[in-house]
Amino acid sequence: MYYILFTFFLATGCFLINRIPFIKNAGLGTKTITLLFLLKVFAGLLVGWMSQKFYPQGNDYWNLNTAGWNEYQLLINDPGYFFKDLFISHYQNGYDGFFHSVGTYWNDLKNTMIGKFLACCNIFSRGNYYINSMIFNFLGFFGHIAFYRVFADVFKKQYWPVIIGCFLLPTTLYFSSGIHKDLVVFSMLGLFSYVLYFSLKNKLTTKYFLFACLSFFVLLFMRNFLAIAMVPATIGFIISSRKKWNSLIVFSSVYFTGLALLIIMQVIKPSYEPLKIITQRQQDFLDLPDASSQLKTIRLQPSLASFATNAPLAIDHGLLRPYIWDTPTRFLIPLAVELLIYELLFILMIILYRRNSFTENYFVLWGLFVAFTMILFTGYIVPNTGSIVRYRSLYLPLILTPVLCRINWDKLKTILRIKL
Fold first, then answer.
1. Which of 73, 118, 134, 189 is the most buried (most CB within 10 A)?
2. Which residues of 76-111 are buried (b: 16+ CB within 10 A; e: fewer)?
3. Separation between Cα atoms, residue 241 and residue 41, nearest integer Å
4. CB 396 within 8 A of CB 171
């Protein structure tokens, strides 16, 4: 029965994916769109199979699917409470602790929303994980398309580098394809990127505005630090694109101004400790049982001096781990090899830099500032390599796509022919 349902939904998905204007107008072609969609679906199936095989005692993906079935039972038995429950806090602190990572209504809300969406999916899937995964990835595919449409417009005539950067990065494809908030975050980040770029390039319409609000607030509830990190970068992007000023100076000035305001506020009111939000988040991670890829981490203090002192370690953890020679588990070996390839591509870009490969770099800088802010934040708070790779994977298209597009591949081909 489930095989028939899966085949039916897969065929329906392949049919619809080529008829939705947003995807059809990406300029990829029917065969390419279908193959990329099937790859996305396969990645989702792989996530489900591997998590069940290697973590049968419990994992986030299958636990969420089970929660979705429980929500489905609530939907059919008490539909009124099903919707009302979304707005009810079951904690003594009520609706406090928006930035806390445990024991708050806001922390539970992200999984609650996914569970209730799964309840709707279960009307058709009957709770089957793999069918639900396909439905999730049908929607998640829009995130890849959104990134592609932006970068294809920024880097014109860079067809394959853009496809690789937006669809084919292994860890990004894998971790953005499970029944998990990572899929939602990746999709909403892609949607916000698309709306931001084209609303400023063309015109801010009502449709663009509504989709910008939708994507931003979903990110705010799903991964609030990412939504906050996008604010200064978006301010820099808007100023750069409107005023046509030097974009690097504008972005740096916005971030420097934000840092200066933070210092002034702490001097004026010492009891105001916004950095304590980050130190508490780190503490919540450290309170969890040690993972097999646990890293030695220094506990942060809610002061700029502590963050500055630990910045090199945060960069090392967030950007450079896992090392190819330091993989405590076999699962980290392919991840370390992938990261090494990205580092080699960066070096290749420096050597074979393609000049005049694009006319404006506002969006590229927006993506780099957002990505590196989140990677630095991850390096500060997350104490194990496995989780760092998962969090970092969602921002890799913003970093790797410009790298791939700036490499002069024609010159590389010429050099290789000479050597051969």
1. 189
2. eeeeeebeeeeeeeeeeeeeebebbbeebbbbebbb
3. 37
4. yes
Which tokens go with 388? 């760092």
Distance CA 23, CA 17 (A): 7
Helix locations, 223-331, DSSP H: 224-243, 247-268, 276-286, 304-309, 311-315
Which range has highest mean pLDDT (42-46, 58-62, 359-363)? 42-46
pTM confidence score: 0.94
Phi-psi region of 382 (alpha: psi -120 to 50; beta: other; left: phi over 0): beta
Spatial CB neighbours of 317, under 8 Å, sequence gap ≥ 6: 295, 297, 378, 379, 382, 385, 388
Q: Are 368 and 402 in contact (CB under 8 A)?
A: yes
Sequence-separated contacts (24+) of 29-33 with Cβ below 8 Å: 32/163
Q: Take residue 235 and report the two structure tokens written for it.
A: 């301010």
Residue 141 phi/psi, 5-degree rounding, is -60, -25
- 3-state DSSP assignment of residue 8: helix
What are 188-223's pLDDT values in tens digits? 999 999 999 999 888 888 999 999 999 999 999 999
| Tokens read off for 200 | 């400023």
- So what's the pLDDT on residue 72? 94
- For 155, which DSSP code? S
Rg of the chain over CA atoms, in angstroms? 22
Q: What token pair was written down for 26?
A: 């990406």
Distance from C-alpha of 121 to C-alpha of 45, rounded to nearest angstrom: 16
